[in-house]
Specification:
heterodimer, A: alpha+beta, 5-stranded antiparallel sheet, 4-stranded antiparallel sheet, B: 7-stranded mixed sheet, 7 strands, 20% strand, elongated
C-alpha cells in the first residue's frame, strides 16, 4: 500500500512540475505576478512530494519490504539500519529519487530566496528549473520507477552491494556529490534566464557567482570524500584512478571552476561574458553527461549502476539541454558584446584567460580519454591508451601550470603590470621555490613532475603569504592593531579575495601531497606465518593470528581477519565475504599520521596453516590531501559568508560596475 | 555569417548524440581494441630478474601479453588459468606478463605465493608500454600471432575457454 503511494507522489510531482514550468513561462510573458506565485507554489509542492516519496522508500528499506523490487534487490533482513537508510542512493532507481529530492530542494530554495526580486529573470529561472524537474519526475514515472512491485514476495534479499555497505563513508560521499551536481542546475537556470531576458549585467553575475560557488563547495567536498572512500575501502592503496565516474565528477568541477574565475573578469572588466554564459551551460550539460555515463552502461567502470532503460531518456535530456541552450546562446550573441577594455599581456585578465584555457584543455583531455573507447569503436584506428598512466602523463603538466598561475594571477594588477612590480612581487618567492626544488633534488626526489609541483606550489604559496603579510603589516602600522586582529580584519574586510587565497592554499597543499604520495610511497607484499614480521620503511608489521568469524552487526557476512601489530599498536586488516559478492571485499586498515600512512591490506589467508599474505604500503603525506580539501572548503565558505557589516551602506549606493563589484544584490542576499 | 552561426547547434548536438547513442546498446566490456589486426606495439622491457626482453625477441611463436598487478584481485584467479595454459601450450606458445602500476617486489611476492609458471614478468615502470597497448586496467591480455599481429584482446581475466578459443587457431596457422 505505502509503496504505491510513493509512486502516486511521483506522478503528482510530475504534474506539479509541468504546471510550474508552464506557469512560470506564461507568467513571465504576461508579467503576471499571480501566475508566477502559483508556479512557485507548485515547485514547493513538488518538493514536498519528492520528500514523501523518498521517506516512503526509506521506510520500505528499513522495514525490509521485499514487495518493492528495489528493496528486494538492495536490502536484506539483516542489513543494519544505517546501511538500509543509505541504500536510498546505493542503486539506480533510489539514486534518481534522491537526486530529484535534492534538485527540487535547490530549486525551491532559490525561488523562495529571491521571491519578489528581479521578477522577469526569476520567472525564467523558475521555468528552467521546473523543466529540469519535469525531466527527473518523468524518468521516475516511466523507465526508472523506484516503487516497481514484485510478486511473489521474497522473504529475504541479497543486501546492498557489498562494496557500498563496507564503510560509513558511503553515507557522506554520495550526498555531497549529489548536492554539488544538482546545485549546478541553478547557475544553468540563471544562464538561460539571462539569455532569454537579455540580461547578463553585474547583478546577474553576482547572484550566479554565489550560486555556482555553493554547489561547487559540495562538489569539491564530494570529490575529495570519494577519493578518501576509495582509499579507505578499495584496498589498493590509492585514491584516484581516472575511472570514468571519477572523471564524470571532475568534468563539471573543472568548468565550474573556470566559470568562477572568468566571471571575475566579466565583473571587473566587462569581458568574457559570452564565454561565462557558455561555461555555466557546459557545466550543467556535463552533470547530466556524468549521470548518463554512470547509469547507461556506456562505459565500463567500477561505479556503474545496473544497465537500464533510462539511458535513452538521459541521452535525450543531454541533447535537448545542449541543443536548446546553444541555440539560445547563438540567438543572443549580438546582445552579449563585451565591453572593450585595453589589456596588457602581463595582467590579471590574461592570467585569468590562461587559467580558463588550461581548465578547458584539461576538460577536453578528460572527455577525450573517457569517451575514446567509445569513439574508437565507431571510427576504428588510433592506438592511444586511456588508462591512468595516460591521464597522468597528459594532465600533470597542465595542473602544474595551473599551480603557477594560481600564484601569479591574483598578484598581477588589473590592466597591466610594470617590470618593477614583477621583480618586486615574484623575485623572492621564485628564489624560495628554486632553493626548495634543489633541496628536494638533493634529498633524492629525481622525477620532474613532483619537483615541478613542489616548486610551483611553493612559488605560488610564497606570493600569497607575502601579500597577506604586507596587508597585515600595513594595518598594524596604520591602525595600530595587534598582528592577529590585523590579519583577521584584513581577511574579513575582503572575504572574496582572502577566501580565494585560502582555497588556493588548500589546493597547493593537496598538490604537494598528491605529488609526494604518488611518487615516494613504498610498498611490499609478504606471506607471513603467525609471529613473523615484515618491515616497510620505518614500520615493522608483526602478524599475530588469524580470526574467521561472522560480523557482529550482520552475521551473514563472514570476516577473515588478520590481527597485526605495528610498532606495538594492535590493529586488524580483513577480507569480508558478503553473501551477494563472489569476491571477498578488502577491508584495509589505515593508520594515519601527519607524516605518512601505514596501510595494510589482507590479500589472501590460508585458514589451514594460519598464514596470510599482507600488502603493506607506507604512503607519505596522504592525510594532507584530505586536510587540503578541508582548507579548500573552508576558504570557499569564508569567501561567500554573508558580510553583514556593509548592508546598510550598500542598500543606498549602487557602485559603478567597472570600478567596484556591485554590492546591492550580494548584500540583499546576506540581509 | 549570421546564418552560419546557427550551424554551431547541429554541429554540437549531432556528433555527440550519435557517439553516445552508439554506446547505448553495447556491453562496455566488449569495446574492440584498435590494435586488432595491427602489429604488436614495440617494447623493450626488463624482467623482474633483470634481463632485457624486446617484442622482436618474442616473434615466431604465438604470444600472450598479459597485463597484471599483484594488487589486482581478479589477477589471482587468472593466474591459475595462466599456469594451466603454460602447462598445456607452453611448448608452442609464449606467455609474458607485464606489470601494470606495480613493482618487481610486489610481483615476486605474488609469484612466490601463487606459483611461478616460469614465463617472463616484465616491469613497465613508466607505464609507457601499458599506454601503447591501451590498457585501461589489469588484467588485460593480448593474443598475438607468430608474425607479430595482434589478433584478440581480452578485457578482464582470461578463462580456460578463452585461451582454448584464441590460442589454438594461432598455433594452427603457424
Amino acid at each position: 500500500m505505502l509503496p504505491d503511494l510513493g509512486h502516486v507522489a511521483i506522478v503528482i510531482g510530475l504534474a506539479a512540475s509541468v504546471y510550474a514550468a508552464l506557469a512560470f513561462a506564461i507568467g513571465a510573458r504576461r508579467r503576471d505576478a499571480v501566475v508566477v506565485h502559483s508556479a512557485r507554489r507548485a515547485v514547493l509542492v513538488s518538493f514536498v512530494l519528492a520528500g514523501i516519496a523518498a521517506t516512503i522508500m526509506v521506510i520500505s528499506l528499513l522495514t525490509h519490504d521485499f514487495s518493492v523490487l528495489y528493496v528486494a534487490r538492495n536490502n536484506a533482513t539483516t542489513t543494519p539500519p544505517f546501511f538500509s537508510v543509505i541504500s536510498l542512493w546505493a542503486a539506480l532507481e533510489g539514486s534518481i529519487l534522491f537526486w530529484t529530492l535534492l534538485a527540487v530542494g535547490w530549486a525551491t530554495l532559490v525561488l523562495y530566496r529571491y521571491r519578489g526580486m528581479h521578477p522577469q529573470l526569476m520567472s525564467w529561472v523558475g521555468a528552467t528549473l521546473a523543466a529540469i524537474n519535469v525531466f527527473l519526475f518523468s524518468v521516475m514515472t516511466w523507465p526508472g520507477n523506484p516503487f516497481t512491485r514484485v510478486t511473489p514476495i521474497a522473504t529475504e534479499g541479497p543486501g546492498p552491494n557489498a562494496l557500498l555497505q563496507n564503510h560509513p563513508f558511503m553515507g557522506l560521499h554520495p550526498p555531497l556529490l549529489y548536492l554539488g551536481y544538482t546545485g549546478l542546475a541553478i547557475p544553468f537556470a540563471f544562464g538561460i534566464a539571462a539569455l532569454i531576458t537579455r540580461r547578463t549585467d553585474d547583478a546577474w553575475l553576482s547572484i550566479v557567482r554565489r550560486w555556482t560557488i555553493v554547489p561547487w563547495i559540495f562538489l569539491t567536498a564530494g570529490i575529495v570524500a570519494g577519493a578518501w572512500w576509495s582509499y579507505e575501502v578499495l584496498g589498493w592503496g590509492g585514491y584516484w584512478a581516472w575511472d570514468p565516474v571519477e572523471n564524470a565528477a571532475l568534468l563539471p568541477w573543472l568548468t565550474a571552476t573556470a566559470f568562477i574565475h572568468s566571471s571575475m573578469v566579466a565583473e571587473r572588466r566587462g569581458g568574457l561574458r559570452t564565454w561565462s554564459v557558455a561555461l555555466v551551460i557546459s557545466t550543467f550539460v556535463l552533470t547530466i553527461f556524468g549521470t548518463f555515463l554512470t547509469r547507461s552502461g556506456v562505459v565500463a567502470s567500477v561505479h556503474s549502476f545496473t544497465q537500464s532503460a533510462i539511458g535513452p531518456w538521459y541521452l535525450a535530456g543531454i541533447l535537448i539541454a545542449l541543443g536548446a541552450s546553444s541555440a539560445l546562446l547563438v540567438a543572443r550573441l549580438p546582445d552579449l558584446r563585451d565591453r572593450d577594455t585595453p589589456t596588457a599581456v602581463v595582467s590579471r585578465e590574461s592570467a585569468f584567460l590562461f587559467n580558463n584555457v588550461l581548465f578547458l584543455v584539461i576538460t577536453a583531455v578528460v572527455i577525450l580519454g573517457t569517451l575514446l573507447p567509445l569513439a574508437v569503436g565507431i571510427f576504428g584506428g588510433g592506438t592511444i591508451g586511456v588508462g591512468a598512466p595516460w591521464f597522468n602523463r597528459v594532465n600533470v603538466p597542465l595542473f602544474v601550470a595551473l599551480l603557477f598561475l594560481m600564484g601569479v594571477g591574483p598578484a598581477l594588477p588589473w590592466g597591466g603590470a610594470s617590470l618593477a612590480t614583477l621583480r618586486d612581487r615574484f623575485g623572492p618567492p621564485l628564489l624560495v621555490a628554486a632553493v626548495a626544488m634543489l633541496a628536494a633534488w638533493a634529498l633524492g626526489m629525481r622525477e620532474l613532475a613532483p619537483l615541478a609541483t613542489l616548486g610551483m606550489a611553493l612559488f605560488s604559496g610564497g606570493i600569497m603569504l607575502d601579500e597577506v603579510l604586507r596587508g597585515t603589516r600595513a594595518r598594524m602600522r596604520g591602525r595600530r592593531e595587534a598582528a592577529p586582529l590585523a590579519g583577521w580584519r584584513l581577511a574579513t574586510r575582503n572575504r572574496r579575495r582572502y577566501g580565494g587565497y585560502a582555497v588556493h592554499a588548500g589546493i597547493l597543499v593537496m598538490g604537494i601531497a598528491i605529488a609526494v604520495s604518488a611518487t615516494l610511497s613504498s610498498d611490499t607484499s609478504a606471506t607471513l606465518a603467525p609471529g613473523e614480521s615484515v618491515t616497510v620503511g620505518e614500520y615493522r608489521v608483526t602478524y599475530d593470528r588469524l580470526v574467521v568469524e561472522p560480523l557482529a552487526d550482520d552475521p551473514r557476512v563472514i570476516e577473515t581477519r588478520a590481527e597485526i601489530r605495528a610498532d606495538g599498536v594492535a590493529m586488524a586488516t580483513a577480507l569480508r565475504d558478503y553473501p551477494n559478492s563472489e569476491t571477498p571485499i578488502a577491508t584495509p586498515v589505515v593508520r594515519t599520521s601527519l607524516g605518512d600512512d601505514l596501510y595494510v591490506t589482507l590479500m589472501a589467508a590460508d585458514p589451514a596453516t594460519g598464514s596470510v599474505t599482507l600488502r603493506v604500503f607506507v604512503n607519505p603525506l596522504v592525510v594532507w590531501i584530505w586536510l587540503g580539501g578541508g582548507i579548500v572548503v573552508f576558504g570557499a565558505v569564508f569567501a561567500i559568508w554573508p558580510d553583514r557589516r556593509r548592508v546598510g551602506v550598500a542598500r543606498t549606493a549602487a557602485a559603478p560596475a567597472a570600478v567596484e563589484p556591485p554590492r546591492s544584490l550580494a548584500e540583499q542576499e546576506s540581509a | 555569417m549570421r546564418l552560419l552561426r546557427w550551424l554551431v547547434v547541429p554541429l554540437l548536438v549531432i556528433p555527440i548524440g550519435l557517439l553516445l547513442f552508439s554506446g547505448l546498446g553495447r556491453d562496455p566490456s566488449e569495446i574492440p581494441s584498435p590494435l586488432i589486426g595491427q602489429p604488436v606495439p614495440a617494447f623493450t622491457l626488463t624482467t623482474i630478474d633483470g634481463t632485457s626482453v624486446s617484442s622482436e625477441d618474442l616473434r615466431g611463436r604465438p604470444l600472450v601479453v598479459n597485463f597484471w598487478a599483484s594488487w589486482c584481485g581478479p589477477c589471482v584467479e587468472e593466474h591459475a588459468v595462466l599456469l594451466e595454459a603454460q602447462d598445456r601450450y607452453g611448448e608452442a606458445a609464449t606467455i609474458v606478463g607485464v606489470l601494470y602500476n606495480d613493482t618487481a617486489d610486489g610481483a615476486r611476492g605474488f609469484l612466490a605465493r601463487y606459483g611461478d609458471g616460469g614465463w617472463a614478468t616484465l616491469t613497465d615502470p613508466s607505464g609507457g608500454t601499458a599506454i601503447d597497448f591501451g590498457v585501461t586496467g589489469p588484467p588485460e591480455s593480448f593474443f598475438v600471432d607468430a608474425t607479430g599481429i595482434v589478433r584478440y584482446k581480452q578485457y578482464g581475466p582470461v578463462t580456460g575457454a578463452v585461451i582454448d578459443a584464441q590460442l589454438a587457431p594461432l598455433m594452427a596457422s603457424r
